[in-house]
Amino acid sequence: MQTLRERKKRRTRDALLRAAVELFTSRGYEATTVDAIAEAVDVSQRTFFRYFAGKEEAALGLVELTVERFVQAVRERPAHEPPLEALRQAVLDGWSSINEVVESVVPVELYLRMYRVIESTPVLLAAYLRRSTEVEETLAAVIAEREGLDVDADPRPRLAVAVFSGVMRVTERQWVAQEEGEFSLAGIRALTSRYLDQVGPALLGDWREA
Amino acid sequence: MQTLRERKKRRTRDALLRAAVELFTSRGYEATTVDAIAEAVDVSQRTFFRYFAGKEEAALGLVELTVERFVQAVRERPAHEPPLEALRQAVLDGWSSINEVVESVVPVELYLRMYRVIESTPVLLAAYLRRSTEVEETLAAVIAEREGLDVDADPRPRLAVAVFSGVMRVTERQWVAQEEGEFSLAGIRALTSRYLDQVGPALLGDWREA
DNA sequence: AGGCTAAGGACAGCCACTGACAATTGACAA
DNA sequence: TTGTCAATTGTCAGTGGCTGTCCTTAGCCT
Q1: pLDDT for B84-140, tens place per residue?
Q2: Are B57 and B27 in contact (CB under 8 A)?
Q3: Which Pfam families would you find in this protein's record (chains A, B) (predicted)?
Q4: Running DSSP on this structure, what letter comes out for residue A10?
Q5: Contact between residue A19 and residue A37 where contact means Cβ atoms under 8 Å apart
Q6: Which residue is closest, via its CA, to the C1' of D26?
Q7: Interface with chain B: mutation pick from A159, A168, A198, A208, highest number of B CBs within 10 Å
C-alpha cells in the first residue's frame, strides 16, 4: 500500500477530474470556470493547475485513460495478426472494457456524455485531434516493430495507422451524432465494424458497381 | 472598383495578417502578443479582434487561402475521375499554384515557414487539425454529389475522404520534418505522390511479400 | 521530537478576449 | 458642398486561463 501522501494526491486528482467532468457535462465546457472546479473540490485554483496543465487536460482526462489502455491492447495482440486486424480487434476490445477503466472515477454514462461535449466544443475537439495524432505516432512505432520494419524507412506503418485512425474519427463523429438509443457502447462497436468493412469498397475506383 | 472603405479594410486586414505571420515566423507564436501585432500595424488591439476571431485565426489565415482554393479545385475536376483520383490531382495542382494565392499577402517563403510554426506549436496544430476535419466534411459532400450519392446514407464518401486526409497529414508531417533542401514545393509534391501510391500496399495483409 | 521535503494557499501579474460607449471617418443624398 | 447616417476604430473596464513567487502546512523519516 502506498503512503498517505500518495493516497491523498490520488484522491485530490480524482476529485478534481470528477468535479470537472460533472460540471462540463452539466453546464458546458466554456461556461465552467477553473475556479468553479477548484471550489467544488475545495482547493485553490493554483492546486488545480498543479494537477492539470490546463482546463483542456482535465476535459480529456477520461479519454486519456482509455487511450493508454488501447495502445497497450495493440501491443498485446498476437504477432501473426496483420496490422489492420490487430488495430481493429484492439479497438473493439477497448470499447468492451471501458467500464473497468472509467468506473473508478466516474460512472460510464458521464464518460459517454463527455464524448459529446468534446465533439461539440471546438477547442476541445482540436485538443482531442492533436492528442490523436500523438497516439498515431506511437501506434506506428508499435506496428512497425511488430512487422520488423523501420518506421522512418518504410512509410507503410504510418500510412496504415493514419488510414485506420481516419476511419475511427469518422466512426466517432457519426456515433456522437446519433440519437440516445444508438449512442451506446454497443452502438459504437457496431459502427466501428461496419465502417472498417467499408474501407475496401470506398477505395475502389468505381462505386457504382459495388 | 470597390469603395474607399472596402479598400481600406482589405489593406488593414492584409497588413495585420502580414505582420502576424512575420512575427510568428521570427519570434514564434507564443512569444508574439496580439498587442505586438496590432502595434506593428499601428491599430488598437480591439481592431485586431475585429478582423480575426483570435490569434489562431491570424496564424491559420494563409492556410485558409489555400484550403478554399483546394476545395474549389476538387469541384472542378472532370466528372469521370474516380474520387481518389480527383482528390489527388486537386492537391497536386494546389501545391503547384500556391504562389498565385499567397504572394499577394506574403512571399511564399514565409508561407512555408509558417507551416513549420503550425506543426511545432501545439495549440496551432490542434486548431489546424480541427479545421481539417471541417474541410473533410465539405469534401465528403462534394464527392458524394459527384457520385450521385447521399452522404448520410452511404459511408463511402466520408471514408474515402478520411483515408485521403489521413495520408495527407502523414505527408505534411514528414515534409516539415525534412531538411531545408527537401522542404520545398517540389518536395511536398513528390512526397504526396509517393505516399498516395503506398496506401494500397499499406492496406494489404502481409507486408513482407509486397 | 524535530528537521526535511512535498503539497497547498495567497497574492500579484500577464495575456487573450469581450462588451460598451464614444469618437472618427467615409458614403450618399439634398 | 454640406449635413446626416452608418461603418470603423479607439478607449476603457472587466473576465478568465495560466504562471511565478513566497510562505505555510503537513506528511515522512530518523
Answers
A1: 999 999 999 999 999 999 999 999 999 999 999 999 999 999 999 999 999 999 999
A2: no
A3: TetR_C_14, TetR_N
A4: H
A5: yes
A6: A5
A7: A159
* Conformational region of residue A27, where left means phi above 0, alpha means psi within -120 to 50, and beta covers everything else: alpha
Among the three residues B34, B54, B74, which one is the final residue of a domain in this structure? B54
Grid cell in block for residue A34: 477553473
Do B111 and B204 lie in a common domain?
yes
Nucleotides of C under 7 A from a protein CB: 6-11, 15-20, 26-28
Interchain proximity A203–B203, CB inside 8 Å:
yes
Collapsing DSSP to helix, strand or coil, B58 comes out as helix
The residue count of chain A comes to 210
- What would the DSSP string read from start to end of B147-205? TT--TTT-SHHHHHHHHHHHHHHHHHHHHHTS-TTT-SHHHHHHHHHHHHHHHHHHHSS
Task: Tell whether A25 and A107 lie within a shared domain.
Answer: no
CATH number where B155 lies? 1.10.357.10
Helix axes A122-147, A61-75, angle to 10 degrees: 10
| Residue B184 near residue B111, CB atoms below 8 Å | no
Mean pLDDT of chain A: 95
Asked whether residue A204 falls in the same domain as residue A100, the answer is: yes
- Residue A42: CB less than 7 A from any atom in strand C: yes
Residues A35 and A11 in one domain: yes
Q: Which residue of A has its CA nearest to B160?
A: A202
B188 and B158 in a common domain:
yes
Residue A65's identity, in one-letter code, is: L
Instruction: Kindly state the cell numbers that stand for A181.
Output: 438509443
Question: What is the C-alpha separation between B208 and A79, in angstroms, rounded?
Answer: 14
Chain-chain contact of A162 with B149 (C-beta, under 8 angstroms) = no
The reply to whether B154 and B186 lie within a common domain is yes
From A159, A169, A206, residue closest to B202, measured CB to CB: A159
Please give the interface size between A and B, counted as residue pairs whose CB atoms are below 8 Å apart: 115
Q: Closest Cα of chain A to B152: distance in Å?
A: 9
The verdict on B79 and B127 lying in the same domain is yes
Half-sphere exposure of A177 (CA within 13 A, CB side): 8
Say which CATH number the domain at A17 has. Answer: 1.10.10.60
Q: Please check whether residues A31 and A112 belong to one and the same domain.
A: no
- Give the structural domain span for B31: 4-54
- B112 vs B210: which has the higher pLDDT: B112
Tell me: the pLDDT tens digits for A127-152? Answer: 999 999 999 999 999 999 999 999 99
